[in-house]
Backbone:
């Protein structure tokens, strides 16, 4: 009789299942033959001493493969969305910084134009020659540029951190796969 205790797939079981699927290609069986091909995969794995599950059926093997495939697709879509969101945020931040710079320059230009001499006439010639105004404008632009550079540095640092974390995860996954493959080779 059936034990009744549910047994989950291990990483090693998943690796063996995927290798067997690659070897047998059950989806290439043609009309009416696909489940027979999945049964061949299940029979091969059931005969293997390395496979920890007992009585694997064709449907269980197919469902597990479909679950692994869906999980991988979902992860890839999430990574793509995250990348797109970062790109949109970067574009938005740059546009906001450009807008702020434009506001500062416009305000200074308006102040300059609104200056009047005691007679009430605009003193455009005198204000355009004033070194103080140019120095102030240059200082504001320099500060804005520094803020923008700092924002970019933070953004690059965050992207670098994300890339390093993703690379560490890939290395860990690859190392786990190599351990499984090494274990498989040693078993044979």
Residues:
């Amino acid at each position: 009789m059936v034990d009744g205790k549910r047994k989950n797939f291990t990483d090693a079981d998943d690796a063996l299942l995927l290798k067997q699927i690659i070897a047998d290609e059950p989806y290439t069986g043609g009309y009416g033959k696909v489940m027979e091909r999945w049964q061949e995969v299940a029979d091969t794995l059931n005969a293997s001493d390395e496979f920890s599950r007992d009585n694997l059926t064709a449907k269980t093997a197919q469902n597990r493969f479909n679950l692994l495939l869906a999980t991988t697709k979902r992860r890839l879509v999430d990574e793509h969305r995250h990348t797109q969101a970062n790109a949109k945020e970067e574009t938005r931040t740059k546009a906001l910084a450009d807008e702020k710079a434009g506001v500062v320059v416009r305000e200074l230009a308006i102040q300059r134009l609104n200056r009047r001499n005691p007679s009430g006439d605009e003193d455009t010639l005198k204000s355009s020659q004033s070194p103080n105004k140019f120095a102030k404008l240059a200082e504001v632009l320099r500060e804005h540029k520094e803020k923008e550079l700092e924002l970019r540095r933070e953004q690059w640092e965050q992207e670098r951190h994300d890339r390093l974390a993703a690379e560490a995860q890939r290395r860990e996954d690859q190392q786990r796969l190599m351990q499984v493959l090494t274990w498989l080779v040693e078993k044979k």
User: Anything to note?
Assistant: The chain has one domain: 11-187. The two ends are 32 Å apart (CA to CA). Residues 11-187 form one domain.
